[in-house]
UniProtKB/TrEMBL annotation, chain A:
Annotated segments matching region Disordered: 97-120
Domain of life where this protein originates: Eukaryota
Listed SUPFAM superfamilies: BolA-like (SSF82657)
Protein name per Swiss-Prot or TrEMBL: BOLA1 protein
Pfam families (UniProt xref): BolA
Lineage, highest ranks first: Eukaryota, Metazoa, Chordata, Craniata, Vertebrata
Entry's family note: Belongs to the BolA/IbaG family.
Gene that produces this protein: Bola1
UniProtKB/TrEMBL annotation, chain B:
Gene3D superfamilies for the chain: Glutaredoxin
Name of the protein described by the UniProt record: Glutaredoxin-related protein 5, mitochondrial
Entry annotated with the keyword tRNA processing: no
Organism expressing this protein natively: Erythrocercus mccallii
PROSITE patterns: GLUTAREDOXIN_2
InterPro entries listed in its UniProt record: Glutaredoxin, GRX_PICOT-like, Monothiol_GRX-rel, Thioredoxin-like_sf
Keyword list, A-Z: 2Fe-2S, Iron, Iron-sulfur, Metal-binding, Redox-active center
GN (gene name): Glrx5
Record's compositionally biased regions (Gly residues): 31-43
Glutaredoxin domain segment(s): 57-122
Gene Ontology MF terms: 2 iron, 2 sulfur cluster binding; metal ion binding
Annotated Gene Ontology cellular component terms: mitochondrial matrix
The organism's place on the tree of life at top rank: Eukaryota
NCBIfam families with a match to the protein in the record: Grx4 family monothiol glutaredoxin (TIGR00365)
Keyword Iron attributed: yes
């Protein structure tokens, strides 16, 4: 993921990130026991003022996702952040991989916005 | 006028102008007779159910395919366009707060955009993007009888 990253699983946050970022980290850690976790505050990219915490992206690597289709994986993430999504968290991008998937491709795909010009 | 409005976003600006004069959100005009009150409005389960079954490909987004008002909604529009899917139903939730909440209740999904294939919720922009990247979207479209334009693009490549 591009942009400032906040802590991986097992690391100390060290004060990085605002309160919502820390909450997201704590709740996803508790709910999914991720082996790898990246949280990105996209609020500035969406016109947010300094310190805004409204748009986030999360990359979650967890064995809990094994055997689950994408929709169910995303639902697990949403469930962990239900209160936040009903409140200040306005948008949430989610990448949810199993440890095996992450090992074979330890890169997050580029963020969506401009699809113009991309060839496949 | 109702027929023109129901034919969806293909008409683009003309449809938007018609909707403006009619004074009702597209989502209401499309599914119900004039003044139908039963079922409790455009955000009710029944109303949403009608919308998601209206067409094989239905998108709830911010703005319109001609003019998306959000990067994630735009991403969905662009992905569908890449696959040559231009004929689909798009509903602008910014025009209808009841629908905006109703669609989230219906799918138990907290965000917009939302993509429905054959009446079934498939996911948002992230999932659609991953389906596009891993080839699943081509397969899902095929099940709906829609041939992705990317298949033809590949064929052209092979001919050269």
């Amino acid at each position: 993921m591009r942009g400032p990253l906040l802590a991986a699983a097992g690391g100390a946050m060290g004060g990085a990130g605002g309160p919502l970022a820390r909450t997201i980290h704590a709740k996803l850690t508790a709910a999914l026991q991720p082996t790898h976790l990246e949280i990105r505050n996209d609020s500035p990219r969406h016109g947010g003022p300094p310190g805004a915490e409204t748009h986030f992206g999360v990359l979650v690597v967890s064995g809990r996702f094994a055997g689950l289709p994408l929709l169910q994986r995303h639902r697990l993430v949403h469930e962990a952040l239900r209160a936040e999504l009903a409140g200040p968290l306005h948008a949430l991008q989610v990448i949810a991989r199993t440890p095996q998937q992450w090992e074979s491709d330890p890169h997050a795909p580029p963020a969506p916005p401009c699809l113009g010009g991309s060839k496949r | 006028m109702r027929a023109a409005v129901r034919s969806g976003w293909r008409i683009g600006a003309a449809a938007a102008a018609l909707r403006g004069r009619a004074g009702r959100p597209l989502s209401q005009a499309a599914g119900e007779g004039g003044g139908a009150e039963g079922g409790g409005g455009s955000g009710s389960r029944e109303a949403v159910e009608r919308l998601v079954r209206e067409h094989p490909v239905v998108v709830f987004m911010k703005g319109s395919p001609a003019q998306p008002l959000c990067g994630f909604s735009n991403a969905v529009v662009q992905i569908l366009r890449l696959h040559g899917v231009e004929d689909y139903r798009a509903h602008d939730v910014l025009q209808d707060p009841d629908l905006r909440q109703g669609i989230k209740n219906y799918s138990n999904w907290p965000t917009i955009p939302q993509v429905y294939l054959n009446g079934e919720f498939v996911g948002g922009c992230d999932i659609l993007l991953q389906m596009h990247q891993n080839g699943d979207l081509v397969e899902e479209l095929k099940k709906l009888g829609i041939r992705s334009a990317l298949l033809d693009a590949e064929k052209d490549q092979e001919k050269k």
